[in-house]
Amino acid sequence: MTRILRTFRFLVIFVILGLTTGCWDRNEMDDLALVMASGIDLTEDGQLEITLQIALPTGIPSAVQSGGSGKKSVIVISASGKNTSEVTGKLQQQLSRAIFFGHRGVIIFGEQFARHGINQVVDTFTRFPESRSNSYVLTTYGGTAKEILNTPYQLELIPGIGINKIQSSKLSFPVKIDEFLNALSSQDRSPVTAAIRVINKGTDKETFTIDRAAVYHRNQLSGYLSSDELKLLRWWTGRGHHLRFTVQVEPENEQYGGTVGVELLQSGMKMHLVIKNDLPEIKVSLHATVRAIDNDSKLDLSKVNHMKRVETLLSKKIQSEAESMLTHVQKVLKSDIFGIGEEVHIEYPYAWKKMKDEWLDIFPEVPVTVDAHIKIERTGKTHSPAHKEKTD
């Protein structure tokens, strides 16, 4: 009986202890500074400058809130130092709450920092347990990350959320930090990110736009793709949703601009790869079905010969622009952002073993040919332009 009583007492004490324990390492929301976006720049004296965009409690959007309001929704703080640990410590000294990166959805590299090389901060993204692997990474074009994070955005209470939503849409070129780091450590693909810049600077319409791509050679920014080149890169990488192209089909005159504009409905890319004389040869086919969205010419798209003319001119235009982009990437930027090395690795693993260590030196000399095939599937409710004069 005594033994049973002792066992019962032990169980009661054990249960009570279990109920009275708390979360020893818990952090209340009221004690956290929620970082929504961060940026990294290089100062003139070669130090790191980190900028944090932190949500204020009144600025965190609820289910019924949208757009701007009269209240300040974020604070932006910056500090500089030798490494991320030192800078983070200085940033924490400016805040009464603990810095928390668990909600960070955007990481921005300043142009000068990216050109200098990003190795100094890469370890932080992989080692720090709070860092999210699905944060979007961008590079500034013609400015600093600090400028971007201090730029207002009217459609969202928190600008960092605005950048995150743009990148998560099908109309952008999203690259997450884990994808970027995988490409950075890979031998068969070079890193590339979307490029963000400030527009309408110094006016009441100041905001940011994401309309270019930043190309990296190993761990350094080597240059940018233009808006037109970015469209083709999106197409190449399977992100061609709602891309728009305009082609000149007739000479411009007083009445007509001579152009037809189309939007991609379905698009794809096929790559054919062979090895000749120990060097890859690539043939790329870009294909798409499109719908006409404007017609500022005398052509009537209901007529087969007129439609074929537009399809032919559009195919030639896209082929020419794709060839120009390839020349720029291969000869100037010298970075395999297309994953051609990855295809060689998959299809010819033994050949890849011989060339993988020198791939970035081989890639600029790889012959790549492109052809494009465009088919107009929809012409809209009208065939000839609405402003065309009707004749009896």
Automatic annotation (TrEMBL):
Where is the protein localized?
A: Membrane
| GO BP field | spore germination
Membrane topology per the record?
A: Lipid-anchor
Specify the superkingdom.
Bacteria
Q: What is its main location?
A: membrane
Domain Spore germination GerAC-like C-terminal intervals: 213-380
Q: Keyword Calcium, does the record have it?
A: no
Q: Which InterPro entries match?
A: GerAC_N, Spore_GerAC-like, Spore_GerAC-like_C, Spore_GerAC_C_sf
Q: Which residues form the Spore germination protein N-terminal domain?
A: 25-197
What does the UniProt keyword field contain? Answer: Germination, Lipoprotein, Membrane, Palmitate, Signal
Q: Does the keyword Lipoprotein apply?
A: yes
Q: Name one GO cellular component term.
A: membrane
Describe the family membership recorded for this protein in Swiss-Prot or TrEMBL: Belongs to the GerABKC lipoprotein family.
Name assigned to this protein: Uncharacterized protein
Q: Which organism is it from?
A: Paenibacillus graminis
